[in-house]
Amino acid sequence: MSDRETSLSLIVGLGNPGSEYAQTRHNAGFWYVERLAERYNIPLKNDSKYHAISGRGTIEGHDVRLLLPLTYMNRSGQSVVPFAKFYQIATQQILIAHDELDMNPGVIRLKNGGGHGGHNGLKDIVPHIGADFLRLRIGIGHPGSKERVSGHVLSKAPSSEQQLMDQAIDHALAQSKALIQGQVQPAMNAINAFKPA
């Protein structure tokens, strides 16, 4: 259903709160939303009611809310679900940015719908609002074995990998206009074709 023309009203970045996690791979979703806020001069502030940092502003003529849950990754739904319900934001109007183990650093994909793919943040959201939201998947690479996943996502990437992830996020930011306006297919084509320099 990627041919829809629904404009976005809520953009969520998934991650973990606190300075000790700020630069870790699991916070790639946070990085995207923080840079989006910077790009469009949207102030982000503490929102204790929803256990989050949130902001509201105009992006390409559309009223958009930004949300960074501070509940820790595996409880992201405790922030996202009541926030979306209170502001009456339909699932189809939501974009969730998150890290993706199954893609290498420098790979970024826009996807519409689907399961949670084992991602702990999505696992806590999908059962409550359904799966029909956009996902911006930011590749962080896989450490090679299941036992090493936790340490991998909660550690900082080497600068070579970080540069690749930064390039990918910047590329996605350049497609903000099409995304916000609901031109999902053109945005998807452009984002998914990205190759790092």
Automatic annotation (TrEMBL):
TRNA binds at residues 21, 72, 74, 120. The record marks 16 as: Discriminates between blocked and unblocked aminoacyl-tRNA. It is found in: Cytoplasm. The record marks 99 as: Stabilizes the basic form of H active site to accept a proton. InterPro entries: Pept_tRNA_hydro, Pept_tRNA_hydro_CS, Pept_tRNA_hydro_sf. It comes from the Bacteria. One of its GO terms (cellular component) is cytoplasm. The active site is at 26 (proton acceptor). The keyword Transmembrane does not apply. It holds the Pfam family Pept_tRNA_hydro. Its EC number is 3.1.1.29. It catalyses: an N-acyl-L-alpha-aminoacyl-tRNA + H2O = an N-acyl-L-amino acid + a tRNA + H(+). Its main location: cytoplasm. NCBIfam families: pth (TIGR00447). Belongs to the PTH family. Monomer. This is Peptidyl-tRNA hydrolase. The lineage of its organism: Bacteria, Pseudomonadati, Pseudomonadota, Gammaproteobacteria, Moraxellales. The gene is pth.
